[in-house]
Amino acid sequence: MEHIKDIQISVAHKCIRCGRCIAVCPSDVFGKDNETGLIEVKQKQRCISCGQCVAICPTSSIHHSYFQQKDIHPYKIEDCPNSEQFLLLCKKRRSNRAFSSNPIPLDVLKKIIEAGYYAPTAHNSQNVKFTLITSQTVLQQLVDFTIKKYKGIVERLTHPAIMRFIRLLKSNYISYIPMMQRVIQEYENGNDLILRNATAVILIHADENDYFSSTNANLAYQNASLMAETLHISQFYMGFLCSAINLDKRRKFTKKLGIQDKIYAAMALGIPKFEFSHYINKKNCEFDAL
C-alpha cells in the first residue's frame, strides 16, 4: 500500500485511557501523557494504516482518516471457527488434481481471491496482486510456455560440454533434468501434468523490489487455498509453471499476460470429481523448544 500522505488521527474525549491502542500499534504512533494520562498521537508520521488501533478501541474513540465508519465491522468470537474446526480444515486440505470439466462460478473465485488478499503483509504494504485466468486459450498458453521453457533448458543442460561443466561444479541442476523430461514426455503422450484440466488459475504477484514480496504472496496463497477448501474447490500449487516463470529472466511471457510484477505463486483450481472423506496422519509433529 502506498504511503498515505496527510493522514489524520485523533483521539476523542470519550477515550477511557485503557492503553490498548498503544499496546497493539506496531509503529509506536500512540503514547500516554505522563501528567494527565491522556492517550495522544505522538508520531503520526510512523503510521502504516494497518487499522490495529481502530479495531482494538472498545469505545470507538480513535478517528483515522483512512478508515471510514463503513470500513469498521464488529464481529463475535463465537462466529469464528474454533481451533478443532480449523485444525480439521488444515488436516483435510489436499492437493486434489482430479477435476471435473464444470467451470467454477465467478463469485466463488472472487471469495478465494478475497481471502488471499486478507493475508498479512509486511509493513501493511498490501502489495499482493492477483490475476485470474479462466480463458481456455490463456490456460493453454500457460502449458505451452512451460513445455517450451523445459525443452529449452533440457536441450542446453544435456549438451555434453555443458553437462561436464555442471558436474564439475556439482550443481543440482542435473537432478531437475529427469523431472523436466518426464513432464515433456507425458505432455507429448497427451497427459498434461501442468494444468491437469483445471478450469481456472490464480497467479499471485507483487513488486520484486519489495524485500517481503515473496513472503507476502505465499501467505496470500495459503489463505486462498484454505478458503477454496471451505468452498469445496480443489486446488494445487503449480510448481512446474512457477519454475518455468523463474527461468524466464526477461519476463517476456509474464509481460505478455499484462503482469509487470514478479509472479511468486500460482494456483490451479477446479470442481473436484471426487470428495475426500478421510484425512491421513502425517509423521509426528516434532519441534524444538528453546
What does this protein structure show overall?
- With 290 residues, the protein is an alpha+beta fold.
- It folds into three domains: 9-71, 2-Layer Sandwich (Alpha-Beta Plaits), CATH 3.30.70.20; 83-136 and 194-270, NADH Oxidase; 137-188.
- The chain has ten helices and eight strands.
- The strands form three sheets. A four-stranded antiparallel sheet has the order 5-6-8-7, with helices on both faces. A two-stranded antiparallel ribbon has the order 1-4. It has a two-stranded antiparallel sheet with strand order 2-3.
- The protein is elongated, with a radius of gyration of 24 Å.
- The relative contact order is 0.14.
Shape: elongated
Q: Characterize the biggest β-sheet.
A: 4 strands, antiparallel
The proportion of residues in beta strands is 5-15%
Oligomer type: single chain
In short:
The protein is of the alpha+beta class and 290 residues long.
